Structures
1.
Amino acid sequence: AALVELRRAAGEVAAQEFLSTPLLLANGESPVNGSDRRSGGEGGSRRVVALSPPPPVGIPWRSRATAMALHATSSRDSVRAAAEGEPEWAGDASRRPAAFYSAVFAQIEEVGWERLVSGKGDGGVSCLVFRILDDQGRNHLLEITLPMNYPSSPPCLVADVPYLPELQWSKGSRLKDVVCQFQEHLKILQDYWSIMDDIDKVLWVVDPTKPTFAMSHRRIALGDDCYLLLHVNVRKPRSLPEVRFLGTDGKLDRLITNWRKYCKKWSADKKFHENLSTVLDFALPPPPSVNIEDDEQVDCGICYAKHLPIDDELGTHSGGTTDYTCENPSCSRAFHSVCLRDWLRAITTTRQSFDVLFGNCPYCSDPVAVKITDR
Amino acid sequence: MTSSSSPSRKALSKIACNRLQKELAEWQVSPPSGFKYRVSDNLQRWVIEVTGAAGTLYAGETYQLQVDFPEHYPMEAPQVIFLNPAPMHPHIYSNGHICLDILYDSWSPAMTVSSVCISILSMLSSSPAKQRPQDNDRYVRNCRNGRSPKETRWWFHDDKV
């Protein structure tokens, strides 16, 4: 009976040891639970040291030194515990069996410790995030959540992709299989992403300004306040997309008519933007010269735009950026003073003193004040 | 039907047009649960299908919301009504007019079509009984000439439903 208990304690110590190591190797910093370590008997201590994964090649020297230090500390703790002659093991049973942890660590090793970005939950292995590089050098984070009855049940995946692959899973499957299937999925998506990159490069995309890998929509400026809201079919990216026309009616009528008349001219062999020009019978404007300043501008909380429209009625504010910020530090919402003034004028609770309007922030209700006139 | 009444609408201002395009793009990327935008090229009028939430009196039932935007949206609230048939609810009149403060006095440009829809679904979900408002007949009679619910002086008294 004592021998059985000793073996169980050794297993738990091994699992506990493994809990610390991947976080260290992945993040290059000392884990929080590093000091929370238990040591087994003499036999257990030998096994612990032997089972620790070796530092992978290419790890920065600082991290390697830390890893070495961790091993040294572990050895010293084991020696001290052995010297005391009183082995120590966990009083309460863990929710998962010890075999689960050793199995998962073996599987992480198959994938490669250098790919592990983070682990959290249930001792750091319930939710694993791996870094996967695709053929074009795009970085993807694949989050794998292991259910309580893993591997009988398949893990759950989260990733910044337009759709997830259907996971082929059996009780004998391993994390390596998940990563391989995700990599195959990324290969399938390469064509779709190259098309989206082409659209972002060639056309005047006004929204989203910083698209994620999952976003399949683009709002494209056609000039004269007309826009095309485009949805690319993520599974058949070269097929005819779903489009919506937004803007003033006069000019749009011709484009809508052309779209309906010429949509059969769409060809899977031609470039996406060439197809658009052909079907619309319209020369699509190129993107405006890159304005780095715009990336730093914030959207107005009322009109949802960085810049006011170019309009004579707005006078000196025509095309202007946000120039008022709510003073509540928790809010700090930005507004065009023109928009804020129009809003305050529209409601009955606004108070006026000389040439200043006093009211409340639409978002946090803290006081705001804005001048009536430009001067 | 009075529920299909449409106010005399001016064309959207540039600011309203731009904001609605962004709201629409955001909607199509992540629509609120239980709602489906009826596709149309009319940016000024949205027709949205509402499905009652599971576990409520309206589970599985589908209604249609009509949202009309004024020239100076979002400085002014949109007009939101249920198209016929309107759900039986203590704060929804048979002509589709909705007694909900954020559609009138409590409107704020911080709100969006999406947040308004969620509030309406919440109001439906909180309903204790499928019944009309007490003053339904009188109110509907007064609105027979196509009057907009925004012209009504509402008295909001119920914080639970």
Note: Strands of chain B lie at 35-38, 45-51, 62-68, 79-82.
2.
Amino acid sequence: LGCMKKVCGNNAKNDFRRCPDTDGSCGNYHTERTSGEIIDGVDVRCHLGEPIYAPIEGEMYFWRPYGGKREKSCADQGVRIEGTGQWQGYAVHISSVKLSFFGGHVEAGDEIGEALNRYCFNDRGQNDVEPHVEIRLYKEGRLIDPTHHLQNCMCTGQICESNTRNVLLGDPFKTDKRYNGVRGWDVECQMIDDDDEDSPRAPMIYSPIAGEIVGRIRLFTDSNGAYTGCDNDGIFIVGIDDWLGFEARLYNVKARADIGFGRKRIIQGEPIATRLACENSPDSVFVEIRFEGRVVNITDIITAANCKTPNFPVF
Amino acid sequence: RDYGREMRATRMSVVDFWKNETKGDGLNVRVAHGVNSWPDLVDQLHEPFLNKSMMIEGDVFMQAHRRPRHRAVPVMKADTKLADRITFKEWLREVATMNKAIKINFRSNEVVRPVLQDLYASQADPTSPVLQYPVILHANVFRSPRSVETEVDPSTFVEKAKDLFPDATLSLGWTKQSNFSHLHPKFKKLSWRQLFHILEYISRLDQPVMLSVRLSVAAHSKEQLLWLLGMDQSISLLLWSDAEDHVTNWTPIVELRRSTTKNRILYDLDPKHRKFLQTDSNEPIATPPTFSLQDWQAVEFSSSGSQLSTVVRSEKGPAFLGEPTALLLSKIPPPNFPSEQKISGKVHFLPKKGMENVDLDENSGVSIYLMDKVQDIDSPKIKNSLEVFIGFDGKIKITNGQLKNLPYYETKSVGQLPDSDCYGFEVTDMGWRVKLDAWTAECGNQKLRKRRTVSIELDTPFQKNRHLRNVVVSKKGDSAVDFLLEELQHKNAYNYRNPWITVVSTILLMIYLL
């Protein structure tokens, strides 16, 4: 959710062309190109003839980046992918690409064609900038910055199996009395009704961060000081790598028995728990995120509106 | 979404604010027009008590540079000498203490931002008077034929108002025109197409919206205006007239007045027109809604295009616009077999302007899905469900969902109706068989010569449990073919013959067990 796949050849990290390039121009979002235009798109480094992959899943269309201008016809081929599933509402334009097919549904990562030289119509000059393809990202018809959807993408990804888009219940970053009044996100999480089973089963919970330690949280004690109750369960994950310093706490979930607690190696997106299926369990899981011990608001990262690493002040 | 925002007085309707004085009727609102100069403002202070106005209206535009070194400031429009003009800020300070509703007419594009910024600033400034009465922000954003002024850009106006003053009523109107009485009658009405154009701007708004409509236009647009007032949004109307309005048939106006709540329509009329409405009966007429808002839930997905793609719900029926990314989900639980369920309605196709000669996707129309599980909807494209389709060109079709190892079932059943703008339909779901009756229907005033009905049916594999399937209505195909479902109903029809069979079989079963 929110993170795009590799677009070109061996450029696994979707690196942009160098900035500044030989002629001083840049391929970053909203910067000036050689032609003097300011482009609300990015230039991903890509050599002529390298394979191009669909960065998102969606419906594919042929698109002419230069609108059919005859003198630019050698580069006037591109693709528009209108997102479906997790990318509903987004559209990606990639140019210039020689497509191997011109329509239909593509999954993220599918090979769709090969890169063309964007400046083939120029005799000289711009040929010495690094070869690249231009990527523009539209959300509800407006151009948005694709940079962090392509590179160093820090979105948490899907959290609950039955909620592909991290749809939230209530306000983002709300306080919740059910879980001691902490602030966080109430991620909708319905039971899953499989065809071949009689009763609905509890959905899987995917780890929102990469982690090294998993532990159990119990919220309430009874009058004897013992932890009881079916719905009295949750887990925490201590982050590592990109997520160093972060800690995710998930309420209304139960850790997978086969993983166990303690020092583990958790990959982001790994199924680590299931939702509780007690009598009074709500149809949601509650996520709390801490950075260096403090509760932080990272709504954009959870809803995948923007996958940029948040800039927390130094505490 | 800010809760408690509904409570702010600036959001209130003028009629509700002056409940005692207006007796809850928009006809009794008195408006002081063009209060744009110091003398006008002073007059407001010395009004006779019993006849005082409830709403002050001022027009603001951008001052052309008085001297080059002066910054342009928003000023009030007045026919006085330059030196007597007052700035918007001064005006706001004066009217803020008069305890009346204020209506600000934005006369140009450039004035939108500075005025809203002034309003925003005065809200934040503790020394300026707090606005505690309805505030209406008005601009003529739609171009009318024979227009004599330029229109204010609607998207700038709406966006800026949403950002800077979300607690005001937003009022939209048409530009002034010359020689209105000579205009061809076809320009004197609000078409469905124009109405959908208006929705582009207002359907996403949280704040109250008012539409300013000329009386003689309203007289020819009753259906459209009633639909607008039936929307599940706070929408009101301002009907205005001047000497050039000649209303020959008052019935639509009177019906409009009688079939809506009195506080939803304000009147700012020429005295002779006002007199007419005052003397005429205003007993409410109750018209049953043709679409039940609480029985249908809208499920919307965002679209990648910039045009409005959604379903707009009104008591007079839902409108599906743009890309097919929105669905309506029936909240009526499907009955158990052997009961049947029926979905009936009337669809009015409205292709977008200029699209008549374009090759449209021939699979554009209404789709009614019968789905096993509605939790699975996580995309606007529904797969593996039984689909009943009515196309804008009269093609009708029932298609079975995925058929796994069931060779005895047909995949689809098709039919064709004559070309028409409107079609009526009734879908009967018996669980094991689905039947569609569709016919050409009358559209608005256009009379139909002969009604043609086509019926098709399709057998469908029955479910494991005895529930019938859930009902979902959506749009399919081209974004250029919008439609309005003038009627839409989902009903469980109980089959009276069958309970006997159940009783008999239960008895037989009991005998067998004994």
Note: The CA atoms of residues 14 and 134 of chain B lie 6 Å apart.
